[in-house]
C-alpha cells in the first residue's frame, strides 16, 4: 500500500513531467501501456500505483524512477529503518523504498528492497545505460539478469545492466537488500 503523502507526491511528479513534455494524459497512458483512468487517478493522488506501473511511466517519460517518488532536498534527512515510504509490486511480494535520489546532474538512486518468497520480481529494461548494484542485507535471493541471475546471501554484492530484463527473487523470509541504480 502506498501511503497518502507518497501518492500525492507521485501524482504531482507525474503530472509535472507529463506537462513538461506537453503530453495529454491519454498520450502518456498510451506510451506507458496503462489506462487513462488509472493515470488520472494516479495524478490526482487517489491511485495506488505498483512498482511496475511507476517504472512504465518513468520509462515512457524518460526520467529516472526516483523523479516520480523522491521527496526532494529540504535539508538534513534521517530515515529510520522501516520508516521510508514503500511502493509495492503488483505481481510479487516485493517493495522498494527510495532512500536517496540523485541530485540534478548526478545519476544514482538508493533503495531498500524488502521481498518474500513467492513470485519473483521481473523487471523490464530501464533507461539505456542503467546499471544496478545490489547488496543483500538479510535472507537469500536470486538477483541479476533474467538469464544469469546470481544466488546471494547476506553481505553478497552483484552488479548488472539494468537496461536488460532482470529479476529479484527472495529465497527466504525477511529478505532485504540495498539497491543502487545508476545511469551512465
Characteristic terms for this protein:
184 residues; alpha+beta; 434 Repressor (Amino-terminal Domain); Jelly Rolls; 2 domains; six-stranded antiparallel beta sheet; four-stranded antiparallel beta sheet; 5 helices; 10 strands; 27% helix; globular
Report what the structure shows.
By secondary structure, the protein is of the alpha+beta class. It folds into two domains: 66 residues, Orthogonal Bundle (434 Repressor (Amino-terminal Domain)), CATH 1.10.260.40; 97 residues, Jelly Rolls, CATH 2.60.120. The protein contains five helices and ten strands, in the order αααααββββββββββ. The strands form two sheets. It has a six-stranded antiparallel β-sheet with strand order 1-2-3-10-5-8, with no helix packed on it. Helix 2 crosses helix 4. The radius of gyration is 16 Å and the shape is globular. The two termini are 32 Å apart. The relative contact order is 0.15. The model has no long low-confidence stretch (mean pLDDT 85).
Amino acid at each position: 500500500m502506498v501511503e497518502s503523502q507518497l501518492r500525492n507526491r507521485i501524482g504531482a511528479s507525474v503530472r509535472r513531467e507529463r506537462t513538461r513534455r506537453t503530453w495529454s494524459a491519454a498520450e502518456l497512458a498510451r506510451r506507458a501501456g496503462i489506462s487513462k483512468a488509472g493515470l488520472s487517478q494516479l495524478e490526482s493522488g487517489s491511485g495506488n500505483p505498483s512498482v511496475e506501473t511507476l517504472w512504465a511511466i518513468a520509462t515512457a517519460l524518460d526520467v529516472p524512477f526516483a523523479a516520480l517518488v523522491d521527496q526532494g532536498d529540504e535539508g538534513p534527512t534521517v530515515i529510520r529503518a522501516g520508516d521510508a515510504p514503500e511502493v509495492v509490486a503488483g505481481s510479487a511480494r516485493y517493495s522498494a523504498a527510495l532512500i536517496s535520489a540523485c541530485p540534478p546532474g548526478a545519476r544514482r538512486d538508493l533503495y531498500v528492497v524488502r521481498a518474500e518468497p513467492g513470485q519473483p520480481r521481473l523487471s523490464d529494461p530501464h533507461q539505456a545505460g542503467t546499471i544496478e548494484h545490489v547488496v543483500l542485507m538479510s535472507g537469500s535471493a536470486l538477483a541479476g539478469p533474467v538469464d544469469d541471475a546470481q544466488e546471494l546471501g547476506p553481505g553478497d554484492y552483484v552488479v548488472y545492466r539494468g537496461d536488460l530484463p532482470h529479476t529479484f527473487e527472495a529465497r527466504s523470509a525477511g529478505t532485504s537488500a540495498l539497491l543502487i541504480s545508476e545511469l551512465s
